[in-house]
Amino acid sequence: MSRYDGLGRRESVENSGAAFAQTRHNIYAYNDRNELTGSERKAGSVGAPTAVVDAEGRLYEYDPIGNRINSAGGTDPQVTYARNAVNQYTALTGGVNASPVYDDDGNMTGYDGNTYTWNAENRLIAAETADKRITFLYDYMGRRVRKQVYSGTPGSWNAVPDETRVFVYDGWNLIRETVSGTASSETYYVWGLDLSQGMQGAGGIGGLVCGVSGGEVRRYAYDANGNVGQLVNESGVIVARYEYDPFGNEVRAEGTGAQGNPFRFSTKYYDAETGLYYYGFRYYHSELGRWISRDPLKESGGWNLYFFVGNNPLINIDLFGLFKNSSQYVEPVIEKVYQHGNNVLYRITSGAYITHILTKIPAGVAIAAGSAGSCYIGYMITSWAIEDTWLDGGLGAAAYDLQETVRKWIANRQNHTPDVPQADNPLIANEAETDLENHEEITLQIHHYATNKNQQYTPEFERIICKYGLELDESWNKRLLPHKGRHAERYHDWMLEQFREADSIAAGDKDLFIQYLNGGAFETVQNHPEMLTKEYWDRH
């Protein structure tokens, strides 16, 4: 069972029952940028963590751009992070003493005794630990198709690998893994609907149904974020249990099948030799809570090229190591909300509700944003969410999206203020007040990211999307946003460039093409709707 705050952020989760080693409360806290600042795992009452009181608690502090300043875990000493001007950690002191090293392309080449080697395409091709050398081979799409492990010592590695793993994919989902060497095996992986309720819309996260090896079937069970929690054999016996801290460090890995299973945090492949998770386009280091190479999307994926899912892994996910994503896997909840009232605006601007909250006093719009958002969520969403218990984490993200919609709507009504109690959401309230001071009256309309009615640009977009079986007037290309009038040619030029880049990355993979745009260009426009105005491009 989960509880959420007024921003739709998860405050606590209770884990109980036979699937868990013991009953636990997981408790969380956040800062004003929605970054996770604390987590605690304990039995007893639920309250926000203010200090780490047991071995499984975590506290985090960040600078304004998302780099960790300090972290503390349980009874371990506090770790302090030194950062450089390009957001790379240069030294960790305290509980961990290490100095990460990077090459000129921003790839980590050394950390805590391990070394990493990269090719010209910024793909990790080798890693060395104190007693292992691991090499990697990729196909034309960047998928890892081979992994080899050698024994020895640095500078004196065995010529023949102890183990070779060969991988076969369907899209980006691993469907066959063949192991040869000291021990040989073959495992087939069966995938179903992931968190997107599609086959690969969420990068397979939460979608791995079972693994079949040597005639034995093991089924996967997940938490709300798509982290593997249990493995169950054909007799219904739990043969592996996993528990993680929010950033994917294993708190528990118990059972006879725990170590042999590579799929764990975020349903991604875990390399036990290096402690890294392979996401597709990048490798994730759970101890550091970040990627070990720059974002291939560059600044299109966010200003900080290394930090992981906005430092909020309880709501956000990353499909392939490109960008954080929350909207895709919560889409079913959002769609349900819109369907029940045709759209959100119909609900909050209709009948007695608008009569109740609006007056003509031009002060207090801050109260409107917070209160209308929280009241709407509390009153309207609860009953609809009951049917979506499988989407535990998604509901919180959907609620936050709705509050943002409410805020924008109220900010457009400059001459009104609600007659309701103090805002439950001061962060959104303050943003709304700022919006009001600088905002012209711009109505919310359905916006096509790629224009579908322009003689010059529409054919260019259609040439790209036709190979994916898509059309411009479909939901993937539309969003309710504040805008009016025609867009500047420079906007269309910019969006066309984003589509071409997505096409080059996706290479025919429809789901990846859409996800690339969702996490890059589309999210940028959602966060900066002023890009839809000619004035914006005149200034830039």
Automatic annotation (TrEMBL):
Phosphoprotein: is it a keyword of this entry? no
Residue stretches making up the Teneurin-like YD-shell domain: 222-295
Give the superkingdom in one word: Bacteria
Could you tell me the keywords of this UniProt record?
Repeat
Q: Where does the record place a coiled coil?
A: none
Q: Which organism is it from?
A: Desulfonema ishimotonii
Q: Does the keyword Repeat feature in the UniProt annotation?
A: yes
Q: Provide the protein name.
A: Teneurin-like YD-shell domain-containing protein
Q: Which InterPro entries match?
A: AHH_dom_containing, Rhs_assc_core, T6SS_VgrG/RHS, TEN-like_YD-shell
Source taxonomy lineage?
A: Bacteria, Pseudomonadati, Thermodesulfobacteriota, Desulfobacteria, Desulfobacterales
